[in-house]
Amino acid sequence: MSHNPGALGAFTLTIGGRPVAGGPTFDVINPATGRVVATAPDCTREQLDEAVTAARAAFPAWAALAVAERRRFLVSMADAVDEHTQELAGLVVLEQGKPRPVAVAEVAGLALWLRQTAGLELPETVNQDDGERWSVTRRLPLGVVAAITPWNYPVGQASFKVGPALLAGNTVVLKPSAFTPLANLRLGEVWRDLLPAGVVNVVAGSGSLGSWVTGHPGFDKISFTGSTQTGRKVLASAAPRLARVTLELGGNDAAIVLPDVDVKEVAPQLFWAAFANSGQICLATKRLYVHEDVYDDLACELVRLAEQARVGDPSQGEVDLGPVSNRRQYETVVSLLRDCRDRGYRFLAGGLPEDGGGGWFVAPTLVDDPPESSRIVREEQFGPVLPLLKYRDVDDAVQRANTGEYALGASVWTHDPEAGQEVAARLEAGTVWVNEVMHLDPLVPFGGRKQSGIGVESGLAGLLEFTEPQTLSVRRSRR
Ligand code: NAD
Questions:
Q1: Contact yes or no for 30/194 (Cβ under 8 A)
Q2: Using CB atoms within 10 A of its CB, is residue 375 exposed (0-12), middle (13-18) or buried (19+)?
Q3: Distance between CA atoms of residues 340 and 368, nearest Å
Q4: Fewest Cβ atoms nearer than 10 Å: which of 385, 413, 430, 437?
Q5: Pocket lining: 227 vs ligand 1, CB cutoff 6 Å
């Protein structure tokens, strides 16, 4: 593995408004080449303590600000993101591997989420206001929030947490994935001069930093996005002190294609539903249930799109799909592909990647009607592989779509939106779309049911996850 860690300059943790170099460092690898692109400071336990102490010290003054003041800070954070769009997107391309336009859109999304979140109102409910009593329920901040994010959208994931946590009056310690720390560390550097010291701290670490964070007694709330497996650990480590948690976890979203679709029209939408960001989206379509009347035609169109897709290093020219984002995920995807091959399932496009070459590339792969019990159907692939599953009876498709531990998103595709709504109403998922997929809005909550999560992000409901209700009741008349 060749090293060129100095090329991007030095990255620092942000603790108490100051740059902190960290003691040791760890390597950040470009998944398109397998080469080290930079080294990141590896936060020590002592530095985590300092970050929590700084956030705790900043909390009373931040919480005491008028909400209008905090709104202004969020808007200036959004402006700063806009000013650094190209630089931040460049870092995301290098550390995560996605095509540049997708990275630019991701950074723009952070600015949009900050601005839209800034416009939300914290509700205050007057329960009683008469001669006897004045009673009001307000939403108060929780204190110090740990924001832990995955590697698929390093900047985008921060947008679901940082804005609402701050608007509600909390202070934050942001911890990105060890695979993709760079853009988040840079965000800390960009924001540190705009905000009162300690309001946003950014730490990164290669080893046990995640579990140090979730076990740390100084956090009042853990807002976690990642796998269901890690989510269970987070919940367990929050339990002894009853720290509040929001968990946004894995998904295995089903799309049900009804027989009345226009195949040519829906094929590109379904292709990108599954393969955008190389399939590494929690809400990507991960199982495609297709009515037998249109199965062959749709499969044919999807194969054509898979063969046309340009897969490659996004730093070396225009591509549609970058690599799988890290070796660990690549191995997960390859293990699922091997299982398909060993069991004799047919690949309509793509298949097991050949060894060799620097990056972790997997061509968009379509698996032809594997059994419902197969690993590629039951497990979350989180990569560019899609099983096509044939059905005859829509009740059977609904029942199969609702099977399993995950219930994040789902979609229904049809010429008849009303018929689509009837099927959608029977699907178990946090969000169900008809004739579209993955549409998110800063003002609309999303989250998972079953083992896809606890709580929601975005919208008023997402903001309230960073608060607790307090009722103030004032007796006016003596009995
Ligand atoms: P992951 O669970 O491995 O890691 C997520 C984060 O948790 C990272 O920052 C990691 O460093 C940290 N972490 C690891 N072990 C920890 C521990 N023991 N305690 C505390 N923190 C720990 O997930 P990943 O591989 O980064 O992300 C992929 C998963 O995330 C997929 O399952 C995907 O569906 C899910 N995801 C969900 C959503 C959503 O909104 N529901 C969004 C994006 C990704």
A1: no
A2: middle
A3: 10
A4: 430
A5: yes
Q: Which of 50, 106, 248, 457 is catalytic?
A: 248
CA dist., res. 134 & res. 292, Å (int)? 63
Q: Which of the four pLDDT bands, split at 50, 70 and 90, describes residue 7?
A: low
Alpha carbons 94 and 236: distance in angstroms, whole number:
34
* pLDDT tens track for 331-349: 999 999 999 999 999 999 9
- The helix/strand/coil state of 160 is coil
Mutate to test the pocket of ligand 1, among 48, 95, 152, 331 (most ligand atoms within 8 A of CB): 152
Rounded to an integer, what distance in angstroms lies between the CA atom of residue 47 and that of residue 203?
8
Indicate if 248 belongs to the active site: yes
The C-alpha atoms of residue 112 and residue 106 are separated, in whole angstroms, by 10
Q: 453 in ligand 1 pocket by Cβ < 6 Å?
A: yes
Q: How many CA atoms lie within 13 A of 178 on its CB side?
A: 14
Token pair for residue 379? Answer: 């497990």
Name the residue at shortest CA distance from atom 9 of ligand 1: 177
Residue 14 · residue 34 · CB < 8 Å: no
CA-atom Rg of the chain in angstroms? 23
Strands across the sheet containing 200-202: 18-20, 13-15, 200-202, 171-175, 144-148, 221-225, 244-248, 453-454
Give the global pTM.
0.97
66's tokens: 């008028």
| pLDDT 10s digits, 113-137 | 999 999 999 999 999 999 999 999 9
* Distance in angstroms (rounded) separating the CA atoms of residues 314 and 341: 29
Q: 50, 282, 340, 380: which is the annotated catalytic residue?
A: 282
Q: Whose CA is nearest to atom 43 of ligand 1?
A: 282
Q: Is the CB of 214 under 6 A from ligand 1?
A: yes
Question: Which residue, by CA, sits nearest to atom 8 of ligand 1?
Answer: 177
Percent helix, strand, coil in the chain, to 5, is: 40, 25, 35
Cα distances (Å, whole numbers) of residue 430 to 3, 269, 377, 445: 43, 21, 19, 9
Task: Return the ligand 1 atom nearest residue 213 CA.
Answer: 20
Q: Which residues contact 394 (CB under 8 A, 6 or more apart)?
A: 256, 258, 291, 423
**Known catalytic residue at 422:** no
Distance CA(81)–CA(85), nearest Å, equals 6
CA 442 vs. chain centroid, Å, equals 13
> What confidence tens digit (pLDDT) does each residue in 79-121 have?
999 999 999 999 999 999 999 999 999 999 999 999 999 999 9
